[in-house]
Amino acid sequence: MNLGNVAYTKEQLLDILNYPGFPGDGLNPMARELVSAKLNIANGAGHECIDDAIVQVDAIIGNLISKPVGNDTIPIGNVQGFIDHLTNYNKGDLCCATHCSAIPSPTPTATATPTPTPTPTPTATPTATATPTATPTSTPTATPTPTATATPTVTPTPTPCQLDKPAIACSTSAASNIAIDVIAGESGAPNGFVIEWMTVADFIANGNQWPDNPDEVCQASFSNSLAPNQTMAVVIGDDRLFDSLGVRSDCSGDPLLCDTAYVFRCRVNETDSCEASPWGNIIACATLPCNPGQNCTYSQGYWKTHSDVWPLQSLTLGAVSYNASQLLQILNRPAQGNGLVILAHQLIAAKLNIANGADPTAVQQFVINADNMIGGLIVPPIGSGYLSPNQTSELTDTLTEYNEGTIGPGHCDD
Question: Among 29, 97, 323, 366, which residue has the fewest nearby CB atoms (within 10 Å)?
């Protein structure tokens, strides 16, 4: 079986499955759950709900070799979402495959030992005595007692379980994205949740209703499980969705329009035992205004889809130079828990913005620091460099704020 790009024997896979774990390491527990998931699929389990996660986990593992077969590790905080998602699948908590009952071991049937037949002792033959014949007495025939007919027991039909609907609220905004607080109900969100959104203008044009066709709205599915009444902040917009772990969205490459109001709604995903929740409350939140001038910035989503207007055809990230084709490959590569890729996305956008005339004052030192941190690492998919997201988060956040227009000259009007 392959884990990432490395093939393992059965004995090596058993070593990984039996390894007790190493403090702070997420690679081994993720590998254990990946082995279990692949064995379940090979054994015939449904898998459409886990296929994307398996592809992403294999990509994260790459050439890393899990303990105790190898000595590689990944900080557990970087991959906890994938570990939880694979665990839920293997436990039967996802909708496409239920958990198998244990097959009982057959009880051996005892072999009967034959008992020897004793040899009969000869019995003396008695002398027959004449017995008088009795006059038969008639026996009355008993009247049969009717048997009561059993009343069938009615088995009640179980009431379907439905998860409680969540609540959502507007949090913060930038020119290209909006942060939403998701608050789980009493039953939580054991299998994640879904958020849909569209512009207020489109919502009004549709008679203040959500379209029946889901293709007419944007949707993002989050694999994060929420405890009862737990609150989680999510950011809707191209940069954050594209680089987030455990998120699937057809709109992950589309920035929100600046100075535009959007409506949002949320529901909790179904589980094996409970139906999905009803849609929760509808909220309206707006992005920040744009900077209509030339001294402004665009997000990575804009540069990814507008390579024809790039002011440069090559860039240096750290100590390595990349041509335009390679830079586009990097921008189109989901981060999959690799902080180097997340940082590279924002550094490319920042350097293109600066080359395009945006004032670099607010971010100049952070660009230098980002190049120093990357050094000679080669960014995937061009290379296989890796940095922990915890290590890059401060630089990534500042560069993101600059590209989105929260700091610096402001976001351009797309």
Answer: 323
